[in-house]
Design a protein that fits this description.
Blueprint: H1 13-16, H2 27-36, H3 43-50, H4 56-69, E1 74-75, E2 81-82, E3 90-98, E4 104-108, E5 120-122, E6 137-145, E7 155-165, E8 169-177, E9 180-185, E10 194-197, E11 208-214, E12 223-233, H5 239-247, H6 256-264, E13 274-275, E14 282-285, E15 294-300, E16 310-317, H7 328-336, E17 340-342, E18 345-347, H8 352-358, E19 366-376, E20 382-393, E21 396-399, H9 400-407, H10 416-440, E22 450-454, E23 460-465, H11 470-492, E24 499-501, H12 507-518, H13 532-544, H14 548-558, E25 563-565, H15 589-602, H16 611-615, H17 617-647, E26 654-663, E27 666-671, E28 677-681, E29 690-693, E30 698-701, E31 706-709, E32 713-722, E33 727-734, E34 737-738, E35 753-757, E36 763-767
Parallel strand pairs: 5-7, 10-12, 13-20, 14-21
Antiparallel strand pairs: 1-2, 3-4, 3-6, 4-5, 6-7, 8-9, 8-11, 9-10, 11-12, 15-16, 16-19, 17-18, 19-20, 22-23, 24-25, 26-27, 26-32, 27-28, 29-30, 30-31, 31-34, 32-33, 35-36
Helix pairs in contact: 5-17, 6-7, 10-11, 12-14, 13-14
Length: 768
């Protein structure tokens, strides 16, 4: 039997901090082991590796604590140990941005050190494992330390598992309250405030607009958050758009690489750029337009076989000549997907040097362009099309109002040469296109648009209805014709492209629309294939009833949302079998893809659509469809906030309006003059037991029969305006009709409403 080892004398914690047993590894040995080990490393793994057993584990524990206090090692997640500032080989990370090369950048999900967290780049070809990775995702990843001194990253991450979206963020107004910071969200859908420790407040001052990262779920109506960015004073006039931009996560800054590429770019015409400077193009745009990406010209067709026909020339800025696939400018453009337009600014898809200069078809300046040459017959039907790449020089820049004056014979004398040479034939060709449009019978909605006018101080001076001129329709028809030609010719040449798809409304939405129209004695047959012409007949009847705008809105709500796809689905609203976006590459990435497809199909250069892009068309279509919806939501939010700011001084005044929405919690009312939308809460309506008839878009009091329906005229008083959230609250002064009991449709069981006592002692109704 082997002799027993002599018992080792026990050591106190104090003594163990100064000396270690001979059976324990040295600090340098532990450091080397931790540094070179793969996987989670804790006390158990270190003890097993060095054969530390029994009571020696007490000494090892004390030694590791001593090394931790000295900063030689630190505690990691799951009770692991590692080098300070060094990430474990497997950990949770958050993807937070794209770098200038389009690679996904990440950071540790938890980082408790004062120094910046190590930078992480996602390994390539990672989008197929666990789902597509995008900014905001949390990922369980395996990290590999990068030793390249020229690399900007400390680690490369390989995905093990996608965990979902990262920490939720919010935008709000900061105020200091004692030893605590409070952030009130600007999103009217968020009702709870966030508590911020002053150490997490980034020195924010009361009244600052801030972005916060939410740290915990609500507990006793308290939510914790930390400030991650400051955006200036919330009451500044330029904050209105900033709130919408940051709330929806629109990219604002271009990468330095993209800016450098734009600044250094010098365009040189290639052999595929024809000299088209002899064609007297003109641009027709809004008065406040800063970039001009389309120009038009037309002339009678000299072919006797096409008597009464025209040749159209639609020139579009050749953005593909400046933005090459895979380059920094291209990556930034794809990240944005499109430009976003606000009353006081534009968040452009391309840097200003391109969007407002090199790519803009400014008058009397030579610019590269992609030119669609289209022949139409005397009925406006397209006969042929081809696409060329050339250098053009626009003769003149006209606003819609100036062009309309010329078309009406009230031309400014300085435009006389342009009128005779260009505008007269452009108008004559439009009259032919209009014949084809009427024969096609696309969906013709009557929707009023508002324009916000800002004063010199940046605040809202007026809100006006946008004037709809025939000049607007002229340019629309030219652009639609070019878009159709691009889709058809690419399909004929079997070249991949992105289509603009708009599917027919679903049967469920059509059914709801039919039920609503029945309340107005407007009949739309069930069970048939829906076509725009059927809806146009309904809209014509609604115009005679002075209900055109209201019915147009309901028809619009019944429509599906348009999107980009590599599949040819057609466009229901325009009543077209195939359609693509070709005419706005300065502000839409989809159009740039179509331009590259045309370059590839017609062999017009080496900057056409690449094989890599062809393979990625599905993902590109999804991405830019999402960025389009993001931009539209931000634009709507901005307009709501500007209008609320404009109405803030009008609290207490009475207005005429129409019911623009009916919900279970109240009525939305749109004011006739400004288009401002506000809520009349259901608790303030006269009556007691309201039922929401969703299919007929109305609220009905089951006791009295008092009914409020979509489109009805009402009188309201403005009770509250909240510019930071864009919210308006009205009180009903007059309106509503009484329906007979037999006409009352119960869409859901009425909710009992009990009377509770408010702070002022008055009774108020609340839904149970």
């Amino acid at each position: 039997m082997a002799p027993k080892k002599p018992a080792r004398k026990a050591t106190s914690k104090a003594s163990s901090r100064k000396t270690t047993s001979r059976s324990l590894p040295s600090k340098s040995e532990i450091l080397e082991f931790v540094r070179t080990s793969d996987g989670r490393m804790g006390k158990r793994e270190i003890a097993r590796a060095f054969g530390v057993k029994g009571s020696d584990r007490v000494g090892l524990k004390a030694l590791l604590k001593e090394m931790t206090e000295e900063g030689l090692i630190e505690k990691k997640h799951r009770k692991g140990l590692g080098e300070p500032g060094v990430l474990p080989s497997v950990t949770v990370i958050e993807v937070f941005d794209l770098d200038t090369d389009g690679e996904l950048m990440a950071r540790p999900a938890k980082w408790d050190h004062d120094e910046p967290a190590p930078s992480i780049v996602m390994a390539p070809q990672q989008s197929d494992r666990g789902g597509k990775i995008s900014v905001g995702d949390r990922i369980l990843a395996r990290l590999s330390k990068l030793e390249d001194p020229e690399s900007h990253f400390a680690y490369e991450a390989t995905i093990i598992k996608k965990l979902g979206a990262g920490a939720r963020r919010s935008l709000g107004i900061f105020r200091r309250q004692g030893k605590l910071g409070i952030v009130s969200p600007v999103d009217k859908g968020e009702r709870h405030e966030y508590h911020v420790a002053l150490d997490d407040a980034l020195d924010a001052k009361t009244g600052d607009l801030v972005s916060v990262e939410i740290l915990s779920q609500p507990h006793h109506n308290r939510r914790r958050a930390r400030i991650i960015a400051k955006h200036g004073k919330a009451d500044s006039p330029d904050t209105t758009s900033l709130i919408a931009i940051h709330a929806h996560g629109l990219p604002v800054e271009f990468s330095q690489a993209a800016l450098d590429e734009a600044a250094s770019f010098q365009f040189k015409p290639g052999k595929h750029h024809e000299d088209l400077r002899h064609i007297p193009f003109v641009t027709i745009d809004p008065e406040d337009a800063r970039d001009f990406d389309d120009a038009v010209f037309a002339e009678p067709d000299r072919d006797k076989a096409n008597a009464g026909g025209f040749r159209l020339f639609i020139a579009i800025a050749d953005v593909a000549a400046h933005v090459r696939p895979g380059r920094p400018l291209d990556k930034d453009a794809l990240k944005r997907g499109n430009s976003a337009y606000f009353p006081d600014r534009v968040v452009p898809m391309l840097p200003e040097r391109l969007s407002n200069d090199l790519c803009s078809l400014r008058p009397d300046e030579e610019r590269p362009a992609m030119v669609a040459e289209i022949t139409i017959d005397e009925k406006g039907q397209k006969q042929s099309q081809t696409f060329r790449r050339g250098i053009i020089r626009s003769r003149c820049r006209l606003t819609y109002a100036q062009a309309q004056q010329a078309f009406d014979g009230k031309n400014d004398p300085k435009f006389n040469p342009v009128k005779k040479e260009t505008l007269d034939p452009v108008w004559a060709a439009y009259l032919k296109l209009k014949l084809a449009r009427d024969a096609r019978n696309p969906l013709d909605l009557e929707l009023a648009e508002r324009r916000i006018e800002l004063g010199d101080d940046g605040r809202v001076a007026a809100v006006r209805k946008k004037e709809r001129l025939e000049a607007h329709r002229l340019i629309e028809e030219y652009m639609i014709t070019a878009n159709v030609a691009a889709a058809e010719v690419l399909e004929k040449k079997r070249t991949a492209l992105l289509y603009r798809a708009h599917e027919a409304p679903t049967q469920e939405k059509v059914g709801a629309l039919i039920d609503f129209l029945a309340t107005l004695d407007l009949k739309l047959a069930r069970g048939q294939t829906m076509r725009p012409s059927q809806l146009n007949k309904i809209l014509d009847q609604a115009r005679k009833m002075d209900r055109a705008e209201m019915v147009s809105e309901v028809v619009l709500r019944s429509q599906t949302q348009a999107y980009y796809t590599e599949r040819s689905i057609g466009h229901f609203g325009l009543n077209l079998r195939r359609y693509a976006h070709f005419t706005s590459p300065i502000r839409r990435y989809a159009d740039l893809v179509v331009h590259r497809a045309l370059i590839r199909a017609f062999k017009l250069g080496d900057d056409g659509l690449t094989d890599t892009e062809v393979e990625a068309l599905h993902d590109i279509g999804e991405d830019i469809s999402n960025t389009e919806r993001r931009a539209m939501a931000a634009e709507r939010d901005s307009v709501d906030r500007y209008i609320a700011a404009f109405m803030d001084s009008k609290v207490g005044l009475t207005f005429e309006g129409r019911v623009s929405g009916v919900t279970r919690f109240g009525l939305f009312v749109r004011l006739e003059e400004t288009g401002a939308d506000g809520l009349v809460p259901i608790r303030t309506l006269p009556g007691g037991y309201f039922t929401h008839d969703e299919r007929r878009h109305r609220l009905v009091d089951q006791e009295t029969g008092l009914s409020f329906s979509l489109g009805e005229t009402v009188t309201v008083r403005l009770e509250e305006a909240t510019p930071l959230t864009g919210g308006l609250r009205f009180e009903l002064i007059d309106g509503g009709v009484v329906v007979k009991k037999k006409d009352r449709t119960v869409a859901q069981r009425p909710k009992r409403r009990r009377v509770t006592r408010g702070k002022n002692g008055r009774g108020r109704r609340r839904s149970a």
